Amino acid sequence: MKQRLLTGVAIIAALILVFFSRTLTLYVFDAFIGIIAILASLEFSRLLTRTGYYNFAVIIGIFPTLFYVAFMLCTHFKLPLYLTMVIIVAIALVLMLGLFLYSLIFKKRTLNEMNLRGVKTSLSTYSFQKAVQTLFGMFYPSFFLMLLVILNRCEELTYIFTKASGFNGTLSFFILLLAFLIPIITDTFAYLMGSVIKGKKLCPNISPNKTISGAIGGVVWTVIVTAVLYLIFDTIGAYNTMFTSLHLEIWHIIILSVVASVACQCGDIFESFLKRKAGVKDAGNLLPGHGGVLDRVDSHIFNAVIIFAFFLIFLL
User: Fold this and answer.
1) DSSP category for residue 201
2) Averaged pLDDT, 98-104
3) Is residue 98 included in any domain, yes or no?
4) 179 and 268 in a common domain
5) Residue span of the structural domain in which 55 resides
6) Rounded-to-integer distance, Cα 267 and Cα 259, Å
7) Is residue 21 part of a domain?
8) Among 213, 214, 207, 168, which residue's Cα sits nearest to residue 191?
9) Does residue 259 share a domain with residue 226?
10) DSSP label at residue 292
11) What helix, strand, coil percent values describe the chain, rounded to 5?
12) How many structural domains is the chain composed of?
């Protein structure tokens, strides 16, 4: 318990420092998200392998870097967002095709691998499945988490986010605060409410400790906390101006909170499903008392997509 508490304090301290660093440079936050994406991706790759979904771990691990390089090059040439996304997805698809061909070309090596793993399918089927499973690992969690890098720079990218100019960092700070805070609130209050109220299990075959009361409590308290947070920020001149300019009202935040909180819990359940299938308690052991990086960010992954899509509506 003491180790878990110390690790938790260290994580919170790191988050505060990273958020503070944004006043000096955006690259520290970019690097922070990139490192998280790489570590979580490698842990996810190992989970897939343990469940029999073989993949190219190295490619999954380097994809966040490829995403970042492609994104920065696209912004340098001021390419529209849709084209940037198309290019990044195309890179992933080309890699998948290349890996499929690699497995076929190096037939002897692939067959040896199949024999060691006791795979009875054909060479082409195994090669294709391995390439597709690697593609899956490139999107979850890498692609989803790296969307936070785009949000980190939304106020720089006014040629994309046409309504994001003139806020002096308040917009991106508020967006990223929600991206990190909503999963934390959801997880915390789902645990607390579930422990106090108990009741019927949410998904006993996947995560026996989760309850329906906890799931509902997580959503309700997320709505309450984010609504209060909005009201507090609304009293600050710069944020009030931002909310007014974007026509961002409290009911928008309430809707976002409900959808995002549900997404957070889906992310948590999805990882629990993978861990149960892999026969492991944690995705890794990098964070003493907390398991792996993926165990800490499983709720953030789907939330990042929801936050990105939500603010895209207001900023384009």
Assistant:
1) E
2) 98
3) yes
4) yes
5) 27-152
6) 12
7) no
8) 214
9) yes
10) -
11) 75, 5, 20
12) 2
**Geometric angle at alpha carbon 297, from 225 and 217, rounded to 5°:** 35
What contacts 133, CB < 8 A, 6 or more positions away? 48, 53, 54, 55
Give tens-digit pLDDT for 148-206.
Answer: 999 999 999 999 999 998 899 999 999 999 999 999 999 999 999 999 998 899 988 89
Indicate whether 166 and 146 sit together in one domain.
no
Say if residues 300 and 267 touch (Cβ distance below 8 Å): yes
Residues 165 and 144 in one domain: no
CA dist 203 and 217 (Å) reads: 16
Of the residues 127, 152, 177, the one at which a domain ends: 152
**Are residues 195 and 314 located together in one domain of the fold?**
yes
Q: Quick check: pTM over 0.85? A: yes
Helix H or strand E segment including 138: none
Structure tokens at 135: 């593609």
- Contact residues for 61 (Cβ-Cβ < 8 A; gap 6+): 38, 41, 42, 45
Tell me, yes or no, whether 170 and 310 share the same domain.
Answer: yes
pLDDT value of residue 104: 97
- AA letter at 275: K
Do the Cβ atoms of 276 and 206 come closer than 8 Å? yes
Q: Which residues make beta-bridge pairs with 25?
A: none
pLDDT of the residue at 4: 78
Degrees to nearest 5, angle at CA 282 with 278 and 286: 130
Q: How far apart are CA 95 and CA 98, in angstroms?
A: 5
Cα–Cα distance for residue pair 261/193, rounded to 1 Å = 14
| Among candidate residues 137, 145, 138, 89, the one with its CA nearest the CA of residue 303 | 145
Distances (CA, A) of 253 to 215, 259, 307: 19, 10, 11
- C-alpha 163 chain-centroid distance: 25
